[in-house]
Hints:
Layout: H1 2-24, H2 42-45, H3 50-61, H4 87-100, H5 103-108, H6 110-125, E1 132-133, H7 134-151, H8 158-172, H9 177-180, H10 186-191, H11 193-221, H12 233-243, E2 245-246, E3 250-251, H13 258-272, H14 274-289, H15 291-304, H16 320-332, H17 386-403, E4 404-407, E5 421-422, E6 428-429, E7 434-439
Helix pairs in contact: 6-7, 6-17, 7-13, 7-14, 8-11, 14-16, 14-17, 15-16
Bound molecules: protoporphyrin IX containing FE.
Amino acid sequence: MELLVFISVFILFCLTIVKIARKSRPVKLPPGPRQLPIIGNMHQLIGSLPHRILSDLAKKYGHLMHLQLANVLFYNSTDIAFSPYGDYWRQLRKICTLELLSSRQIQMFRSIREEEASNMIRSISSQEGLAVNLSTMISSLAFSIVAQAAYGKRSKYHNEFMSAIKDVTKLMGGFSIVDMYPSIKILEKITGMRHKLQRTHKRADKALENILNEHRVKRAESKPGNGEAKEDLVDVLLRIQQSGRIQQSGEFSAPLTDNNIKAVIFDVFSGGSESSATTLMWSVAEMINNPEVLKRAQDEVREIYADRGNIDESRIHKLKYLQAVIKEVFQLHPAAPLLVPREYPKRWIEPEKFYPERFLDSEIDFRGQNFSYIPFGAGRRICPGISFTLTSIQVPLAQLLYHFDWKLPAGFEQEQLDITETFGLAVRPKQDLVLIPMPYFRPPSM
Length: 446
Ligand code: HEM
């Protein structure tokens, strides 16, 4: 009798669990690899670079698949990248395309890009004939361009914010053990990952708060109409917050809170700095390993700017080969590999070979029209930072080619750079680019 009661209670318990599980199961999820109890998708994701594994999984399940991975989102997903499709996202998207990253605004940042690139070139020039770590220099160039565009150079809180944002980038890079064991939430606590991220985020938030207040004081002191032409991104967002209006598009429905502004600035940093830096690093690495490409790119830039002695943006559109090099880098090393599928057009010969020529006289561009080449995504959520990125990459790359010849340090002359990938917020070359600059056209002194 006791056994019968026990069995009935047990069956009832199991049925209740199944019912609850069914109820809580989302209605229709895309296909995906089966999650094992406890270890979730760990068995699929261990052993190689996550984007390579995901690419293999995509071949089996299609480009839309379901994986359960833990993540930590800031500002309640009120940024653009993480906010779901709806009115709020539409409003932010408008702010982004019509104001923050409009062609007018990008053009206004021209002097920032030229100045930062020239600073890097001068610093390299002061180390002629010595081995320089180009990865470090490129990284700090990319962060400086974004910081200057976002809140200007003069902020007292710049170092504080940069240190926090770099720690966030490090912590968010790669799949942590927490991602690997989605079923065991307690692991998040054990690894302390979430806690570390929250602490780092708090530091960044405090610095941003101060940056916002600093801008408010400066705006209150400036005379109306005076200096609007020099607005940085925080200025633009504060203006929109104050007026409740977006230029060209008029009023918008929900007011912009300070947290919304901070979330957008966070997006600009996470989208704009590391990915541009890695693209520049891959461009240099691939050209060093393919000397015929390097020579052709150098010949082009040195011919087009022969009479100038320096590179500015005025003739950058004439550098067709350099643009093909950048396209090929995005093709082989997409900076956001987890967000875009990888599939080569069937007619491409040796798609894994670094061969920029395939993009010369080709219609393929970055705007998401050709589904086999979408490094910035496609459709309504296509990356709004394409022009910002391209303009930030072209001048520094052209300068590196124009002013210097490059060689590998002594003892490595016969070798190739190690172009193994390492996984982070963006996918970098595993080894730092340590190269010796040999002056060709000396940069003008300050
Ligand atoms: C190498 C540089 C970059 C690459 C490869 C890249 C790539 C991408 C990709 C693949 C997406 C997702 C698109 C989709 O879901 O279809 C995206 C979204 C986004 N990117 Fe970028 N991006 C880069 C630079 C930037 C820059 C410089 C900014 C800002 C200054 C930026 C801001 C954003 C934002 C705000 C979104 C979200 C858009 C939305 O959801 O509506 N990105 N990016």
